[in-house]
Structures are given as structure tokens and as C-alpha cells.
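Worked example 2:
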Amino acid sequence: MKRDTGWECHHCKQWVEPGEAHDCWSTTEAALTDGLSDDLRDAWERLRETAAEFGDQRIYASGRCIMFSRKACYFFVRPRRTALEVCFFLGRTIRHPKVRRTDAASRKKIAHIVHIAHRDEVESPITDWLAEAYDTTDTLSGRTPTRRSTPKRPRSSRTRTHS
């Protein structure tokens, strides 16, 4: 809500003074990882290096997350005060003590949430799941034509007038 004294951005919750430029969507990896503890920074660096080794992809900051994508995002990281919240997408549900939560992200994709607090946690099975997400992202994101049960009616070129 804008006021004469400033306003709070509803995206990043930052206070913005009148006349001050604010664009929280053009954030950077450095800005998102700036306040991390040494353990979390080490974990972040190892996680990023591991993912970069998978192959060609785009790594970018968006809002409060750092996204990893090929044609579509296959995982993202939300840096938090106490842990890195990692969300990766697979075509199956994993039941494991490391997986805190799963949600259906689409008909084909299941989102898995994992928290990483230390560099040593960036190892198997988490790295295996991320590699699987990287390998399957194109097939999970591919659009397949849907079948209609009834054929679509052609649109009439005439317009109707109500009497």
C-alpha cells in the first residue's frame, strides 16, 4: 500500500521510501545468498557446482528463489536463515526421511521439498534425485495434445442481435 511516508513491497516485504527505485524481481544470486551463514554458503556453493555439472541449463534468480532450468525449471532453491529449501520435480513420489513434503505440481510432476543445512548433505540420494529431475524435465514438461470428447463447433461469422 503506497503512502506519503513510503510503502512495504508485498513481494519482498522491504520498506520503500517515497521516490526510491524498487524492483525486487530483478534480484541476483548474490543478493539472495548474501546473508547466509558459512555452513549454508558452503552448502549453496556445492549444490550449485553439482547442478552445473549436469549439463546445459540456465541458472537465474527470480523473486526469492534461484531457479535451475533447461526448457522448464527442474529444481529451485529458496535460501532461508537456517537451511536451503530445495524443491525438485520428478514424475514419481519419493518416500524418504530427507523429503519433508511432496505436492502435485501438475498432472505429471511431483514437487519434493528437501532442507539442506550443511555441505555434507549435498550427496546421494539428494544429488541422484536432482540428476533425475534434470534428465526427466523435458519429458515431464512436454505438452501432449489432449483429445476432445466432442468436436469443436465452427464459429459463425455472423453476429447475433438480441430482439
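The CA atoms of residues 156 and 162 lie 16 Å apart. The chain has a mean pLDDT of 84.
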